[in-house]
Amino acid sequence: MEVILKVAIILSSLPHCKVAYRLDGSPDSYSQYRSVDFSSWSQVQLEFSTSRGNCLLLYSDAGPGCSFQELKIENGRLRYRYRGGEAVFAAGGYSGAAVDTDSNGDTILLNNNTKVNDNKLHKVTIGRTQDKLFLELDSFQLWKSFQQKPAQGGSCNVTSLFIGGIPYWLGTKDLALPSVRFEREFLGEIETVAYSSSNPSNFVEQEILAFKGIHVSDANNCNETTCKNEGLCLSTNKGYICDCRDTSYEGKHCENRKKPLEAYFSGKTGLLLETFRNKGAPFSSGEDTLLLEFKTIKSSGLLYYNGDKDNFVLLYLHEGKIQLIVQKDMNEFVTSVKPVGEHFSDDNWHSVALIRKNYVADNNLVFCNIWITVDDRYTETWRSPVFDNEIKTSNIIIGGYGFGQENSNLDKIPNYTGCMREVSYNTISGRVELLQQFSRGNDLVRAFGQLDLVCKNSMSSVALPYTDYQYSMNRNSFNEDKNTISMADKDSYLELPSIKFRANCSLSLMIKTTAPNGLILFSASRTDNKVEYLAMELMNGTLIVHLKLQAGSVKINGPPMNYASGEWIQIKVILMSHQGRIIVGDKTEIFTIPGNDGSPIWIDGPTYLGGVDQFEEKARDAHMIQSIVFREGYVGCIKNVYINNLSINLNRFVQEQNSGAIRSTCHAIPYQCTPRPCNNGGVCTESWNSYVCDCSATSFSGPNCNRGTSTVLFTGQNSLTITLQDKIIYDFLRLSLRFRTTQGSGLLLAIYDDLNRNSLVIQLDSGRIHITVEIAKVAKKLSIGQNLNDDLWHTLRFEKLETIIRGSVDDEDGLEMRLTGPLEFFSAFYYYIGGISSRNIETTVSNFNGRIQQIILNGRHLLEQISLQQISYDGNYRLVQMDDIMYNSVSFLSHHTYIGLPQMKIYNSIDIFFKFKTSNENGILMFNDGKNEEFFGVELVDGHIIYTFNMGFGPVKIKDNAPKSLADDSFHSVWITRPTKYSQVLVIDNQHKVSSAGLGDNYYFNLDGVFYLGGLKSTIMERMPSVFSSKHGFQGCLSNIEINNEAIDPNKDQLVPSKQVSEGCQESYAVEFDGKTPGLITYKFPADKQPDTKKDQLTAIFLTGLRDCTIIRIDSLRSNDFLEVRLVSGYLEAQYNLGTESIRIADTKNFLSNGEYHFIRFVRIGPNATLQVDNNEIIKKFPDGRHLTVFNSQNIVQVGGRSTSVNAQNVHHFQGILSGLMYNGLNILQMVFDKRDGIRTKGSLKLLKKLPKNYAFSPQDSIPLTEGRVVTDAWTNCDDDDLCEGSGSNPGLEEPKTDRRGIHFDDGGFMPCTDDEDICDFGSGDSGGTVGGGSSVGRGGGASSPPDHEARYGDVSSPRDYISVSATVTPSTQLYSSEPNYFTETTPFYIERTSEKPVWSVFPIPHEDTTQPSEKCYDDKHNVECHEVTKAPAQNPRKDHRGMSSTMSLVIGIILGSFIAMILIVIIVLKVRTGVELDNIKQLQDMPKPNGGQFGSPSVTDKDEYSNDTGTTSLINGKSNSGIFNGSISNALVGDRARLFKKANSYGKPVREWYV
Questions:
Q1: CA distance 270 to 277
Q2: 278 within 8 A of 271, measured Cβ to Cβ
Q3: DSSP per-residue codes, 1415-1428
Q4: How far apart are the first and last CA of the chain?
Q5: Residue 144, φ and ψ in degrees, nearest 5
Q6: Mean pLDDT along residues 851-857
Q7: Residue 1262 CA from chain centroid, whole number
């Protein structure tokens, strides 16, 4: 009772007193004094004693971003840190132990080396004078000079001075030095606290304003056993307190282990500590430590980052190992921690401790020591000189950082995915537990993204429990369709739940395949650095089951049968306590599980079905599984998969993983090799619904043997050496290579391990191949081939299948041999090509002189990997790349088009190759959208390839490093590949390589939907991610598209076709019409090849600023038929005439005279037509009434305007750029480039090798039309040297000498009778027309006339004078005149000179139907549809339901009557001319046949004179033995009479020609 009363009295008297006191060091203990203004002369003095080596002694500041002063004990020594607001410290002298200024100059440090934690009383004084800062300890002084800017202002207000600690109500956001919040409190005696603000010093003792944790009792409440587990016992007024903050325990006595706070990082989250957020000063200490524990299955991810751009510490996972990079003051340290056979992405907890410690050496140089320790077992160290002795921290990143932040040191490192706990950053005197501070809402620690404070399982799926098989079957009643899949790609696989085998576990499935080799199932885990696995594979049609445990391994053959028969086979594997069974049908194989004592078999990795992830590290240790070593996945069907007797819904996994190469059906499509897809000598092998090309015996690679390979040239003095990163064990080895030489001897290839115990040496000796295999000093030798130095290419093949080796050359039968001796694994570490460069290997084999290519080792193309620098190598060599063979080419004629293909078959394996050629520098080449904002895209930007992808963690762009633009109208190859888990490589032309890592856990591509090639739908283009620069599609040629070793044929695989995409690569030809003088290109068809067509097709690309011009016009030779495509007021229009009236089709919605490139496509089939501009809707035209269908005798093609003759003016000339012009298969512009016959040019034209990127269009002044001049629009008066032979389709020209008879309709229109396909109805008048010689129709290209045509102009056949009249034409109206319209902005109409004003009518353009007629095959040779040449139409022609007119009936009757009369006339003429009565013919038959004389046959001379035998002469000469004549006339008519008869018939002219 007395003690309690004493304590109360003393405590009540402490405020405003000057007595000594003891701080107990408990959390948040402190004492508070009035503030001190350090902006001018001021000093603080106190006396203290303590035994604590790390604690806070004094602190004062003026608020965030303002001045502060901190005095603390660190490692038993005083450390004074001061920041003077806006003060900037200059260089100055110092005296004492150590003085330091931080790198940004905003704080100054004074460190004293005298130990003060000795429980002795020490006096310390800190302060500043006008220009000095000083620290004085027991009369020993440190000082530093500085210069100060004008006094600070704003919100900086000096607060109180605190001794021993910081009160709880001051948070980190309230402090100028946030780290002071985490310093340990002072434990010891405080004697006096005094201030002085005068000179000389006059100290005044200060009074306590507030306090917490002052211990006024002399009693010690602690003993050695009070606090456990290294907890610190503190004696307070209320008894003892166990301080457990620096331990892993909690409770009153620190007796309970803390349950660590865990957090899950999703790959899109991170934890940040930032002192600069509130303008706080950084942490500063001579030593710091990072502690954390993590658990993940992802092999790469960011763990810890501390620093800025130039000085930082970076700790991250990389392919399962821990990587550390430290960069400090221009020094860099890089190391990794990865024990042999172990990785840290095994879903187990791992601990990391990273320590940095600065110290001063004897020579006063400062060094930094760094230690990293993982799992308390693996340690790496580093030591480097540094410029200062302080370690400062203002920015810490844990797990990842936001996509909006920029940090070049982290760009290539994915964010971490997994769990973390026990994450703390520690200085000498403080500890920041980041997860705890985040959970408490400390403003200093924040997270981006959603950071969950609970550890989640990051496995793809959980293990399945064991259930009764029969119960599972009855309960599930599964639908077989949902459990059936087919795999057509040996690289495809499904990742299923982990097995986690226990006692009495099972695996069951059914397979159906014709492939003899392939991996069916693989599941593995790693325990104590050893891999355990269960695997199932087919080897040469036999089932093999592998089980490897720590106690041993076993390899069991399934029951004997052919497992590649193409029939369904059920396989079940059962593992019990000591025994296992393989059950196939009614057959069973029993085996013993090695070393199992009945404990669970714990294989907890994912289960791979049909193959294995190429980056699965545990698969690298499965060197006893042939299908894994040879990378042969299963191809065929699988269904009814049960793991632990639970049915697996395979279709769900197919949809989730979406590799594209696995289908939810099982249909066998045989004869895949029938089309002979393998080129250049490749050998095709049938696979399940696919084919495989073996290109090893060719100079090419790729799915169809079209991609050129690399060839190395050796001179006998050079060689090539490949050094592997890790030793590889080859229980199975398959090797092939090609060589060519004239030398009889030389080393081709040698493989050695790191100890030179194992070797494989392949050499040429005296023209023969010698293969020597040495394992554990036991060697075997094969000798094959002969005369192989014949300067021809030879292919060598070698295999090692466990103990069997075999070799062969070319197609010869090989040799086989069995290895004997110690059964050690064959391992490899060095590959020597062309010669052995190592001095550690004794050899007498000379270097190779010749060429080597196609070195393929277990599926790896070594020379290609060297070319791409994917493996480490050295040596002096010359590499030559074979040219690729072009195939499956496709041309995009417009940058507004595209085609859609099936979804790209990429999931985690990425190997994409294609070639392209273009002269346009921008455009989308490929794009495939995906789930969760994922996508794949390749575009051309300013002539360079940019590959952009998003695998769920933000977009990544890779741009080629080609030295010049690739838009040079030459072919370039693009290769996108994924050599490692988290990196992708872009290679241009097999030499320019750029690589990049993704963001986050960018492991799988979750694509979805159509794979767009050459462009995009407009709706997709509008919502394209902002990272893409292209605004339109690609224009040019794409070829050789290969995706994951599958050849893509865009011409056959289209899901979304386009008429603006054509098969094959079209050369780029462009012509500039610069307008200086009107340019014109003309082509005249040869006289014997003037086509008549029922279908015309025209495509072109153009750029212009003229609103009215002609792009192309085609005229007929013998009729008014023509076709013209032109711009009218900036809108596209096509007009054509097939002999009746002009038909017009126009696009009135899209203005094209805007100086941009546009693509147009016109198709005519009969009188119907379609017109399309860019990728806009298709305009259709189905004209009413009766129309002809054939464009007859095409003669002249004019490009860039219209002209009537060589010397005539070019009317409506084009100005701008014209490219890609194709008319019915004619590449007019290419013919200009090639200077073909029939091509003529005039005016100002410029041939272009590439389209200009930015074409500055400046239209030239048009040539004015002289009033009164006769302007002609067709060819006329052409002699042999002119361009044409006359068309007669325009006014003012001489009518061609052809029959102009036809029908003139009252409502307009004219149908000539000269067209071969129509018959005119003369005489009836039912059609409402008039018959005559063209008096009721104008001759303006077949344009129809208004009803009052004759009344207005009189006889149009009479010559007239014309004047030029202009009228404005809008898109919605058309000027209608009696003469053909020339739709220009100021359109001339040619009207007769009369006293009346010119008259025309205006009518709206009718709405065009938008249904496009179907197109069929077109024969370029005959310029007609294919069926017109080779076969009948595929469907019956449409019947004409119109009734026969009376005129037509009359004509048919007249013809029939004339034909009958003709026959009668022939008979009568024969009777009269020959004088032979038909009644006498029978009598003549009875007369004897003379051998000569008067009744002989015509002589040989006569026959030669009239050698053309006809029907009449045959009757006379008796060549026909049937009919009424039967040879009797020949017998009756002989001599001169017969000769006269024959002369009358001329032997060459039938009777019908004489008398019809």
A1: 16
A2: no
A3: ---EETTTTEEGGG
A4: 156
A5: -150, 135
A6: 94
A7: 48
